[in-house]
Write a structure and sequence with these properties.
Layout: H1 2-25, H2 31-38, H3 41-44, H4 50-70, H5 74-92, H6 101-126, H7 134-150, H8 156-209
Length: 212
């Protein structure tokens, strides 16, 4: 598989390097077709003309193609090339607008060819070279974290039992709080009665001491 990658990646990247160099050197031949897709976007992003955008796209193809060909960040390079190839195909191979049967057939062929290349790039973007994927490592990290903080992840039954226990605890806490409030009320009433009684006794004693 390692040998296959060494040959497959440069072969897949070669068309982008070749086309990118041509776009950098001769942007005027591709600018009219690009205008049908980009419109006034070059001006909006700070470029003076569509030709500059074509030249920039060509440079991106060359850089990403070289990266894919030599195996430097190949997955990222493949995704960048997909992002560059899709608008290029939409601009340069609009077979549905061709009325001449021969030209229409030729554009259809180029369109399908580019679609096939996108398929190859998708495979290159998904190729982890036998290493765990990011999603697998994320799931593994989550599982390890679960083991670290509390053992195995709870099953549905265990989760339901835990939820029921929490509900019972909350109910018990609410009941205890209610009982506490009720007891405090009774205590306040008792204290008020005692205070009123003592106040009455003090008042009665004071009246007895006063002269008639």
């Amino acid at each position: 598989m390692v040998i296959a990658r060494r040959f497959a990646r440069p072969l897949l990247a070669s068309i982008f390097i070749y086309g990118g160099v041509d776009a950098v050197r001769n942007p005027s031949s591709k600018a009219p077709a690009a205008d049908t897709v980009v419109g006034d976007m070059p001006v909006q992003v700070g470029l003076s003309s569509t030709e500059q955008l074509v030249r920039l796209d060509g440079a991106v193809k060359v850089i990403a193609g070289l990266a894919l060909g030599v195996g430097k960040f190949p997955r990222l390079a493949a995704l960048v090339l997909i992002g560059s190839l899709v608008p290029t195909t939409a601009a340069g191979h609009r077979f549905w607008e061709e009325h001449d049967p021969a030209k229409r057939k030729a554009q259809q062929l180029h369109f399908v060819k580019n679609a096939s290349i996108v398929g190859g790039l998708l495979l290159a973007a998904a190729d982890t070279e036998g290493k765990p994927s990011v999603s697998w490592r994320a799931r593994r990290a989550a599982r390890d974290l679960t083991h670290l903080v509390g053992g195995e992840a709870p099953s549905t039954g265990a989760f339901a039992a835990g939820a029921a226990a929490v509900s019972r605890l909350a109910s018990s806490a609410g009941q205890s709080a209610g009982e506490l409030v009720e007891s405090a009320g009774e205590l306040a009433q008792s204290a008020g009665a005692v205070i009123r009684k003592k106040a009455g006794e003090v008042t009665e004693s004071a009246q007895q001491l006063l002269p008639a």
